[in-house]
Amino acid sequence: xxxxxxxxxxxxxxxxxxxxxxxxxxxxxxxxxxxxxxxxxxxxxxxxxxxxxxxxxxxxxxxxxxxxxxxxxxxxxxxxxxxxxxxxxxxxxxxxxxxxxxxxxxxxxxxxxxxxxxxxxxxxxxxxxxxxxxxxxxxxxxxxxxxxxxxxxxxxxxxxxxxxxxxxxxxxxxxxxxxxxxxxxxxxxxxxxxxxxxxxxxxxxxxxxxxxxxxxxxxxxxxxxxxxxxxxxxxxxxxxxxxxxxxxxxxxxxxxxxxxxxxxxxxxxxxxxxxxxxxxxxxxxxxxxxxxxxxxxxxxxxxxxxxxxxxxxxxxxxxx
Amino acid sequence: xxxxxxxxxxxxxxxxxxxxxxxxxxxxxxxxxxxxxxxxxxxxxxxxxxxxxxxxxxxxxxxxxxxxxxxxxxxxxxxxxxxxxxxxxxxxxxxxxxxxxxxxxxxxxxxxxxxxxxxxxxxxxxxxxxxxxxxxxxxxxxxxxxxxxxxxxxxxxxxxxxxxxxxxxxxxxxxxxxxxxxxxxxxxxxxxxxxxxxxxxxxxxxxxxxxxxxxxxxxxxxxxxxxxxxxxxxxxxxxxxxxxxxxxxxxxxxxxxxxxxxxxxxxxxxxxxxxxxxxxxxxxxxxxxxxxxxxxxxxxxxxxxxxxxxxxxxxxxxxx
Lengths: 320, 320
Known about the structure:
Chains A, B: It comes from Niallia oryzisoli. Chains A, B: One of its GO terms (molecular function) is DNA binding. Chains A, B: Residues 2-56 form the HTH lacI-type domain. Two copies of one chain form a homodimer. Chain A is α/β, with parallel strands linked by helices and 320 residues long. Helix content of chain A is 44%, strand content 15%. Chain A has helices spanning 4-11, 15-22, 30-42, 50-55, 72-87, 101-112, 128-133, 158-171, 187-203, 221-231, 244-256, 274-278, 288-299, and strands at 61-66, 91-96, 118-121, 140-142, 152-155, 177-180, 212-213, 238-241, 266-271, 283-285, 307-309, 313-315. Chain A has a six-stranded parallel beta sheet with strand order 2-1-3-4-5-11, sandwiched between helices. A six-stranded mixed beta sheet of chain A has the order 7-6-8-9-10-12, with helices on both faces. In chain A, helix 1 crosses helix 2, helix 5 crosses helix 13 and helix 10 (221-231) crosses helix 11 (244-256). The N and C termini of chain A lie far apart (52 Å).
């Protein structure tokens, strides 16, 4: 298919001139305008839909709120969102919030002032009360279970997924099971804590707050987990690690400290990132690229808020 | 410091109302407006600079062109760009091009139509002639050596860096040295090919086109490299792999095929990504997050185009 550069070449004008003709810019001579039009007809050029959409008062910009950009979890979500945006001729406005509430409100305000058509929130810091104040201005899509709320959502059942991971470790003979996570608060963190405590109750195991490891986001955070494990008189024999990259870090530092995996410590990762495959980490596959795609499609769908659950899959490898 | 939510709480109004007051929206009662203003004075609230900038006709949006989002190389560049954008109160408009020329032209057009204040191109597909047609509309910053061109650039000396890697392998006793790369064309690819051929000439070694492996972008691409190596009667004994993630893939598949690293094959990575540390890959450290930061700062600097070289560092580990 001919592109804008081919048209420019055929018409003997610059790309800028073609772009001006496409956008009905006034400063183009009638002669050049005609040459561009002839070239377009000759090679059956299909101009993109921007012009059409702009006339409808749409920006063709979708906002994406993400706490971090360069993290495998959010990277895969963004990949799915971006791939679908390209297909549908939208651009993304990226809001890296570092989980600062004010940044998230800025994103919501851009929706309010029609600077973006819709907003995807990959992970939020603002309360639902604040977010719901902005739903009148355009579609908002969350990546968490928001059934019953006035926004759309694509989600996995965090409670069930976490329970499943714990039960898998239990069935492998583990009694002292701990877990690592990034945030103490946050919807998903709370659901996981609830699943954990419920699991312990059912198994008649005591709750040991030492067995929960917070602030685990990156590879390096695995070091601190292992350091703490080494100081415990009765460390957990299995860990649910809610990020493969952290699991990879724990695995690497365990090797250095001669802790045998899975004999001394079983590790169950989360997400099934490429690193989990490389390092043979048993993990729960969460189809993040696919979730990203669905988040985008819901953002450009102007019908009523809807909710879709995505299912996870256990991938058995060598760390449990 | 108080944020917009604190103000809302103090004034007994919604966040939306605070936002409306900040943006001089007409539909706010005088009573509420006054309550918000009092709360702001009371806690010495500093409104952000958006309003000031908008009045100057700026969008506070910076465009970022990247072929892919979820790739470690571009992920780190984006991380640096995004961190600096947050600090300076800018948002990013992301253009994932998949190296399609038309997508890149769309980004240039957004600069032309003042929908963004500046454009950062992490890696381009368009010729410099096309890009230079758009410099009149706003700052354009490239991540390649663009000295002598009418755009700004932050770059590493690809020719010198590649020569350095080849010479290091040569000094370790290797004669049959190959390399892997993503694109056949592209400025950086051409400079690397030039450095390679020049090196061979100086060393009096024959040029063997089989020793160059194209289309190497992801971990999985390492499989194809190893499969091709296994079929060669006289394979290279050392490879410069211009991406750590590909080097990790080669390393992993070599282990499966019982090719000893570095005895049978020496591997020199590029970038010093976290994976290079995990897998003990000898590599050239390219400070991508820092380069991202500099790209952003150059984009918002409205002075004359400028150029800055960033230096690389050899990290010796266990694969050479």
